[in-house]
Amino acid sequence: MKALEKLARLQLIRSSKIGPITFGILLARYGSGIDAVKAIPELARRSGVKPELVSMTSIEDEIARVEKYGGRIIVRGEDGYPPILDMLDDAPGAITMRGHSVLLEKPAVAMVGSRNCSVNAVTFSEKIADDLGQEGLVVVSGLARGIDAAAHRGSLAHGTIAVVAGGIDQTYPRENEKLYHAIADQGLLIAEMPFGMQPLARHFPIRNRLIASLSSGVVVVEAGMRSGSLITAREASDRGREVMAVPGSPLDPRSLGCNSLIRDGATLVVSARDVIENLRQPELSIPPSKPWSAQSANDDTSAPADITKARDKLKEFLGYEATEVDELIRQCHLSPAVTHSALLEMELAGEVMRHFGNRVSRVYES
Questions:
Q1: Per-10-residue mean pLDDT for the chain, 366 residues long?
Q2: What pLDDT score does 366 carry?
Q3: Is the separation of the CB atoms in 349 and 363 below 8 Å?
Q4: How many other CB atoms are found less than 10 A from the CB of residue 274?
Q5: Is 93 in contact with 100 (CB distance < 8 Å)?
Q6: In the prediction, which pLDDT does 365 show?
Q7: Whole-angstrom Cα distance, residue 97 to residue 184?
Q8: How many Å apart are CA 236 and CA 212, to the nearest integer?
Q9: Which of 5, 182, 200, 355 gives 322 a disulfide partner, CB atoms 3.0 to 4.6 angstroms apart?
């Protein structure tokens, strides 16, 4: 990929109101990041908002800071971008990496769980992560305290990937700073957020989605009913990954989430062998999900008046719960081309939000 194209793609994904799904749709519609950037001002004008592209100076500055830090930014479509991510419609438009990127070429399994976990759960997590590493699996987790940190420690000698919630340079929590540097030396750190960004509460579900996307399956160890680990499990299930859980006492609230997952069909895990055998099942597959591939998303010939009418109609039918775009097309009696053009303008106007699996919802008004 040429340097100017990489800069343009990074400029797109770093701009507000352009999420990973819209990033992919823009590339499919206009054929390149350069042409997509050129189209943004007109799209924004039709959306009734001002263009909000970040400056090219800001993009060049971020790349320089990352490289000085010992990292590297990979944009979607560039050599080195993980194929396991590229088949998903909400694949990050760019990821920042620091460490041994060769780990992305190996099979991976995620391990997540409670921050406030039991001593037994920590011991078990370290052992199972070590056993999985010895079998050639890379362990992916989120560098949080508790189960995440135990999974990284257990697999560090074999290969571990830590997905951080903020920028690649942000160590969170501080108690894991030593582990952070050890992973940078022996494993791989990955971030979706820009360099220097402090981790915020809204970044953690994004991180959880990336953990699930990078792995063939996820193992949940000690998770309460409101644990963020259940978000990771749900994201894994949505993406066709295997969901596995370690059972616990029904009297321990830290195990209620895991027990619930098992009740709902997750594979019960008591050893690394359970994980390995589950991932070797021949029927397992990860379905691709690019909504623009068969939806005429590259058709930019719709009349502005038709798009305006479509926006008004979509506003009537859209709710705050995610709805499949195909269903909107049927219910609103609109063509795919007009629907996708209208949704693109609505997203740039901050009126709708994209979701995995070609779904969309209205944005809550504050």
A1: 95 92 92 94 82 90 97 96 92 97 96 93 96 96 96 97 96 94 98 96 94 96 90 93 94 92 95 92 50 44 81 90 91 90 88 89 77
A2: 53
A3: no
A4: 16
A5: no
A6: 66
A7: 9
A8: 5
A9: 355
Distance CA 245, CA 24 (A): 33
Q: Is 242 helix (H, G, I), strand (E, B) or coil?
A: strand
Q: Is the peptide bond before 173 cis (omega within 30 degrees of 0)?
A: yes
Where would I find the H helices in 187-289? 203-213, 228-238, 256-263, 272-279
Q: Tokens for 320, please give them.
A: 């705050």
Q: Given CA atoms 86, 7, 293, 47 in this order, what sign does their dihedral have?
A: positive
| Domain ranges (residues) in the chain | 3-80, 99-279, 304-362
pTM of the model: 0.89
Instruction: Give the SS3 label for residue 133.
Output: helix
CATH class of 99-279: alpha beta
Instruction: Please indicate whether the domains covering 99-279 and 304-362 agree at the CATH topology level.
Output: no
Residues 6+ apart with CB under 8 A from 189: 71, 97, 98, 99, 161, 162, 164, 168, 180, 183
For 36, the token pair is 């997509």
Residue type, 344: L
The radius of gyration of the chain's CA atoms, rounded to the nearest angstrom, is 21
φ and ψ at residue 188, rounded to 5 degrees:
-145, 130
Beta bridge partner(s), residue 297: none
CA angle 211, 212, 215 (to 5 degrees): 90
Tokens of 358: 């070609």
Distance CA 110, CA 108 (A): 7
pLDDT of residue 300: 54
Residues listed for the chain: 366
Q: Give strand ranges (E) for the chain.
A: 72-75, 94-99, 108-113, 138-141, 160-164, 188-191, 217-221, 242-245, 267-268, 323-324, 352-355, 359-362
Confidence (pLDDT) at 256:
94
